[in-house]
Amino acid sequence: MGIDTENQEIENSIREIAKKLLSENQVDVIIGYAEGTIPLSSTPIFIRKEEDVNKLIWNNLCYINLANYLVPLMPQLCDSEGNALKIGIVAKGCVGRAVNHLAVEKQVDLEKVKMIGIRCNGIVNRSKINLEIGEKEILEVSISGNDIIVKGKDWEKKFPYDQYINDLCKVCKVKSPSASNETCVGECEEIESIHDEFADVIDFESKSSEEKWNYIKEALEPCTLCYSCRQACPLCYCNLCFVDQNLPVWFGKTAELPDIIVFHLIRAFHLAGRCVACGACSSVCPVGIDLNMITRKLEKIVKDRYDFTSGLNAETLPPMMDFKMEDTEEFMLEED
Amino acid sequence: MENKILKKDQIGKLYNELVGEYKFYAPKNHKGNISFEQIEKPEDILLDYLNSKIPPKSVLFPKMEVLFEYTLDDKDVEITDRQDLDEKTLIFGIRPCDAYSFELFANFFSSHGNVKDEIYLKKKENTTLIGIGCNTPRTTCFCTSVNGNPFKKDDMDLFLTDLGDSYLVEGISDKGKSLIERLSWLSNAKEADLKKSEELAKKAEEAIVTKIDAKGAVKILETSFEHPIWDEISEACVGCGTCAYLCPTCTCFDVIDETDQYNKRGRRIRIWDTCQSCLYTKETSGHNPRNTKIQRCRNRIMHKFSYYPKNYDLLGCVGCGRCVYLCPVNNDLRVILNKINKIEKKEEKKAVV
Fold it and tell me: Which of A270, B91, B154, B205 falls 20 to 30 Å from A196 in CA-CA distance?
């Protein structure tokens, strides 16, 4: 079965469930994905009427983590008294992880959220395709069988699907939400623990400190500090980000590389044991910065030391929010 | 003044001749991100491009700029002003929409009574623009709907048309015309070259498929400040600064004072800022007049299509389409303006009934 057929089935099931949830008043609004106006894109959509459910789509360009819209809750998702509406949310595995994790951090009330679970088949790496096409306008992108077909005026290029999805999707172990049938309608399974070899991190780990430093410097050089990575991250919901703190100023805000690096690395640290590996930060970056190697490394450290994976359920506190009296902390002075 | 021909293999010659006198900026590709950079090797110049991702506003209004530096001892502060403002800058390969944005910038930075942005204006005065027509505009381009054209020449000093293996060179301003005289080795253009350039210009204009009724939107916006449409328009926005930072006409900046107390010195810096940031309008008291995303999204549209026309009799948009194709969530400006234009139609209909 090709990816295109899988997508069609997923899309049909999303529409069917959405229709049922709205008609039975189980939810007031559904957050999902709609067709984008330009190739290689999609756009979040908020559906309130049954007759609009056919605007919901699923394809491999649905890169935004929709849990981002749950916190902070915008006025459009509240009733006239400011209370949260009942929300249905189209949830691929990483959206499910984010919803769970936000519930653990008491940012989301699961009583008010219904996940429409789907089994995600990976998200196309937009910047990689854009980079390879270069200075030609892409006019159409489609998936046929297992190929991503990119067309422009008088040209066409095929990309093998398995190689051109996000690196995070290639190693993803939570393709549908890890949730019970109570919180999730549609595809879901309760996952207790995952086994991850972190084979994709080994190469980075073997680099010298200098090489790692150069990797980070080079990756961040084009950053414009637009903060789209932070804004699209479902777990970056602080009222006031450390970098915006100006009474007193904690960190420099200039566009000089040291300040840029400080922002990105501290943001990464804040996501240790919290990042849900959705890759939204890199998918939305207008200049194609991908720092997921750093977040993967942090995920590995957390897994190795605490046997914790974020977002598998809505109860377990993440390591940085919890402690046990018998914690040995023998790694406290380790360097790596 | 006769029109000239610059062969594509003569770009290096042109560069070598001018680089001593000017800081020479041109589009350069850095891993898929095209921006206007100071060129060190002529082979880095990329002219066969759609448009730069980072608008060339970054040359005169970089994402970070030191305004002045200072040192202090127990009694005195000594300020060192910028020394580089008299240097001559040349921007090569700029597109017509972006060249027009320089006029909007200069207008904005000089039209607030006695408060003028001397740093920007001085640099602008010392800048020469050698632009290039857009033979193949993107489908997201809509310059013709906002007073522009893929072959708009009047904001440039020299205007180039890509004829295939050479460029037609037209002197537009006096600055440009004297530059042509200096480049005496340029060959004369033939009648056929001019004809071809006219054909290309016509074809390019036809290739602009996006049409927006900007004037209509300006009118509707006058009375739509409280309209519920803003709830819908802002819903998907994530509140990042992409649309503003990569907009050639967005002028907003924040000012930071950096003090190095150990070495008794400091600098005042400006960095790009955006009305999409929640801090942008936050007041010292803690009150924020634009506390929600709804208000912030509205401000971006109102600023370009309502306040700008009202205050300067200009549109604050040049139709480059960067915010259209670079918005992380595809919150497409074309769709937004079309939605705004439909407000009136609905109400007119009501009035008729």
Answer: A270
A165 part of a folded domain? no
Q: Does residue B55 sit in the same domain as residue B129? A: yes
Q: What is the pLDDT of residues B104-149, one digit of tens each?
A: 999 999 988 889 999 999 999 999 999 999 999 999 999 999 999 9
Note whether B80 and B68 are within 8 A (CB): yes
Is A327 a domain residue? no
In chain A, residues with a C-beta closer than 8 Å to the C-beta of B256 are 252-254
Is A49 a domain residue?
yes
Q: Indicate the residue among A138, A162, A186 that finishes a domain.
A: A186
Instruction: State which of B164, B192, B207 marks the end of a domain.
Output: B207
Burial of residue B129 (CB within 10 Å: 0-12, 13-18, 19+) is: buried
Residue in B32, B62, B277 closest to A288 by CB? B32
Question: Which of A131, A227, A232 lies closest to B32 in CB terms?
Answer: A131
Q: How many domains does chain A have?
A: 2
Of residues B26, B173, B39, B17, the one with CA closest to residue B95:
B26
pTM of the model as a whole: 0.94
ipTM: 0.94
The answer to whether B331 contacts A42, with C-beta atoms less than 8 Å apart, is no
Between CA A159 and CA A137 the distance in angstroms is: 16
Give me the domain span that covers residue A269: 199-321
Structural domain boundaries enclosing B93: 4-59+83-207
Could you read off the pLDDT of A107-148 as tens digits, one per residue?
999 999 999 999 999 999 999 999 999 999 999 999 998 999
Size of interface A-B (CB pairs under 8 A): 129
